[in-house]
Structure formats: structure tokens, C-alpha cells
Specification:
Elements lengths: L1 E3 L6 H7 L2 H13 L2 E2 H8 L3 H13 L3 E8 L2 E8 L4 E3 L10 E6 L6 E5 L3 E3 L24 E4 L1 E8 L7 E13 L11 E7 L2 E8 L24 E8 L2 E4 L2 E4 L14 E7 L9 E4 L10 E9 L16
Parallel strand pairs: 1-5
Antiparallel strand pairs: 2-4, 3-4, 6-19, 7-10, 8-9, 9-18, 10-17, 11-14, 11-18, 11-19, 12-13, 12-17, 14-15, 15-16
């Protein structure tokens, strides 16, 4: 998912999409998963030279990505659509001074219970051994940039350093997620549930465990027949409910909590064993997947409303 926070921020993307040829390129890539330059040019009935500028425009905006595929005649570039959704905030009136931001590394969970297939890895190596849950307690897990499990949960403690006397109005969590299949399976649904302080706030069904094509940031040493990338999801909980990518998934809202500058805030991701689709969970951080980010958290806050002192004369008291 591509999150555009203002019209000005999305200007180059709007320009990129204001072209019938570039729209046709995206449609062809969606229908065929991936194509090389010759295949695209042939289907569009234009020359490779004419196609190049359109490809560069779409790539620079992050709408498509490129992978290199080895052939008998060297490397061949393949093109694919990089995003599954575009979320545009047309009327964004955020007060940037009232937003607290923090990043949480994938391996910085505070609690867990996981079942094989499972594992963790840093940008350089696997942590311990795969499919052995004991290694989720290994000290090296703090450096992990990817983790996966078939069922169970991981829970993160969100740092809360809000200014004194502030209440929380909205929590936004952005992270790259996918299912977990042995090896990989692009069609492997999994029901991923989300919780704040052990209260269920909603769920999302991941369509698959994506592989076969190298993740943009996935290290070279990572096996190509393992999960490569996920989908960027934007979870928002505010006074109106809980949303994923702008779509409401539950009526659970911040009104069901009492969160302020003193609160402990725990965020849990789980695949329950009684879910309809027990397809596992993979969380991608920096150095893995298609988005070079950890778990990003933004907290909108505002001061508590202070009561207006009453008029002493109205109570019969004098000063």
C-alpha cells in the first residue's frame, strides 16, 4: 500500500497516472504478474525506446518495481506492480506538533508464543535454527529484521513518551505483513488478528506468502524459495473505530480504552489456532521485503480539557 498524506505529496504519482499508456502498463503487469520490456512493448504496440520513459516514470514514483532474472544470455529485467492499494488523505489537517512518532524493530517484541514453521533472521544470518521456538528468546533476536510463525502471537510494547497531561486521540501503525507457508505460496490466506492491551481491535486476511521474486530489500543470501516480501498495512484506531488502509474493520475505538501519557500500550499480532485460515504470519522490517521500514507508530495527542473554576460567589463562599 502507498500512503499519500497530502495532495502535494502525491503530485508526482497523480502525474504518472495521468497517461493512458502508463495505465495500460499497470493493467498488463497486474494481469501477467510480471513482464519484461520486450513483452510490454509488443503488447502495447510501441517501441522499446518509447516505453522506457514511461517505465522510468512509474518506477520513480514507486508504482512498479524491477527484478533481474538470470537467463542464458545474461540478466533480464522483469517489471511488476509494486503496490496493492493507494491511500490518499485529501483533507489532512494534522497538527505535526501534536504527533509522537517511534519505530520498533521486528525483534523487539516483549512477549511471544509461536509454533513451527517459525524463525527469525537479521540482515546477515538466521538467528539460531529455523523451526525451533526456543530461539525467539535468543539475545540476537533484538537485531532481527524478519520473523515468521505458523500460529501464535508476538506482542510489542509501544514506547510512550508523550508530554505530561496529554490524552491519546489516534494511534497509527504501519508495517509490512504476509502469511507463512512452508517455503512460499502466493495463495495462502491467513487471518491475522490485532490487539491493543489484550483487547481485540480487528483482523485482516493476508492473501498469501509471497516469494519467487526477490524482495527489493531482501538480502542476497536469503533463499529465493523462502518468503520474500509482504504487503504494507496501515492500522488506525481512533474515536470512530479501527481501520486498515482506510477501511473500517471494527467498531472498537479509543473510547474503549483510557490511554494517555501515563499508559502502557501493548500491540499484539496473532494467528489463533481456531481462526478460519491458520496461514501463519511473517513480519518484515528493514533490510527485508519491499518497504525499508520497521514497525512505524504515530500517536496523535491533545491536552486534557481543564475545568473552568466556578464563581465563588455562586456557592455562598466569600474570599
Amino acid at each position: 500500500m502507498l500512503h499519500i498524506k497530502s495532495l502535494d505529496e502525491g503530485l508526482e504519482i497523480f502525474k504518472a497516472l495521468a497517461s493512458d499508456i502508463r495505465i495500460s502498463i499497470i493493467k498488463l503487469l497486474l494481469n501477467n504478474n510480471e513482464l519484461n520490456m520486450n513483452e510490454l512493448a509488443a503488447q502495447l504496440n510501441i517501441t522499446n525506446g518509447a516505453l522506457t520513459s514511461h517505465i522510468k516514470k512509474l518506477e520513480s514514483c514507486g508504482l512498479i518495481s524491477i527484478s533481474n532474472e538470470s537467463t542464458g544470455h545474461g540478466n533480464q529485467k522483469k517489471y511488476m506492480v509494486h503496490v496493492d492499494k493507494i491511500l490518499i488523505e485529501v483533507n489532512s489537517k494534522e497538527d505535526e506538533q501534536n504527533i509522537y512518532e517511534t519505530n520498533i524493530k521486528v525483534g523487539h517484541y516483549s512477549d511471544y508464543q509461536v509454533f513451527p514453521t517459525c524463525g527469525l533472521a537479521t540482515s546477515k544470518s538466521i538467528v539460531g535454527e529455523v523451526d525451533d521456538p526456543r530461539y525467539f528468546a535468543h539475545p540476537d533476536r533484538f537485531q532481527s529484521d524478519i520473523l515468521w510463525f505458523t500460529k501464535g502471537y508476538v506482542e510489542y510494547l509501544i514506547p510512550n513518551f508523550l508530554p505530561v497531561s496529554q490524552k491519546i486521540d489516534q494511534i497509527t501503525i504501519s508495517l509490512e505483513l504476509g502469511s507463512e507457508a512452508p517455503g512460499y505460496n502466493d495463495t495462502w490466506p491467513s487471518d491475522i488478528h490485532f490487539y491493543i492491551n489484550n483487547k481485540w481491535i480487528g483482523s485482516w486476511t493476508s492473501p498469501g506468502d509471497f516469494g519467487g521474486v526477490k524482495g527489493i530489500f531482501t538480502p542476497e543470501w536469503w533463499e529465493i524459495n523462502w518468503n520474500q516480501y509482504g504487503l504494507l498495512k496501515l492500522i488506525v484506531i481512533n474515536r470512530k473505530g479501527t481501520f486498515i488502509d482506510g477501511l473500517k474493520i471494527s467498531d472498537v475505538s479509543l473510547n474503549d480504552f483510557d490511554l494517555d501519557y501515563r499508559s502502557t500500550i501493548k500491540f499484539k499480532l496473532a494467528v489463533p489456532e481456531d481462526a478460519k485460515h491458520v496461514g501463519g504470519l511473517t513480519i518484515y522490517g528493514k533490510n527485508f521485503g519491499n518497504y525499508n521500514q520497521d514497525i512505524n507508530v504515530r500517536i496523535h495527542y491533545s491536552p486534557y480539557e481543564t475545568a473552568v473554576p466556578s464563581d465563588p460567589s455562586s456557592t455562598g463562599h466569600s474570599l
